[in-house]
UniProtKB/TrEMBL annotation:
Gene3D superfamilies, A to Z: 3.30.70.260, 6.10.250.640
GO terms of molecular function: low-density lipoprotein particle receptor binding
Region Disordered, annotated ranges: 23-45, 143-188
Biological process, per Gene Ontology: protein folding; Wnt signaling pathway
This protein's encoding gene: Mesd
Bias (Basic and acidic residues): 146-188
Protein family: Belongs to the MESD family.
Name of this chain's protein: LRP chaperone MESD
Domain of life of the native organism: Eukaryota
Keyword annotations: Chaperone, Endoplasmic reticulum, Signal, Wnt signaling pathway
Main subcellular location of this protein, as a coarse class: endoplasmic reticulum
Localization in the cell: Endoplasmic reticulum
GO cellular-component term (any): endoplasmic reticulum
Biased composition (Acidic residues): 23-32
Amino acid sequence: PAKKKDIRDYNDADMARLLEQWEKDDDIEEGDLPEHKRPPAPIDFSKIDPGKPESILKLTKKGKTLMMFVTVSGNPTEKETEEITSLWQGSLFNANYDVQRFIVGSNRAIFMLRDGGYAWEIKDFLINQERCADVTLEGQVYPGKGAEESEKVKNKTKPEKARKKKDADKKSNSIKEDNRATKQREDL
């Protein structure tokens, strides 16, 4: 049997064990659980429009944290980007959207949403702003009002990924050609 200690003699480890014992039998409400431990919300397939793939994404992202990248047009300084995105965040806050903003470059910011189901409504608001060059959401780049004419190709996929893949394929092919053991195996 464990020896009983006086409460005044408890150290941090003893207090942690005591807390674990108290919380062992507690019922934790679903809303208090971390996001990765919550059960996914049921998807109502009757609301899905087969003509719009975004409707599927809206329903699957509902209730989950989501991030979108926003680029400010022109050549703003980091302070200008801070001011412009702060105005956008304030407008979204006034429309009851819970959005957090993080500046990640001189012309780029991340908007983090607690409920990803509203991401496409927020994206629509952002791309209609005069100084918005583009919004990147779930791998799709949506050009904004402030985008240059050459960049206004709707819903283009990020070209960097395809280019990196092609470069990697070229490198692997050149390595295969230079590798003697590989050539001998192919000849057999």
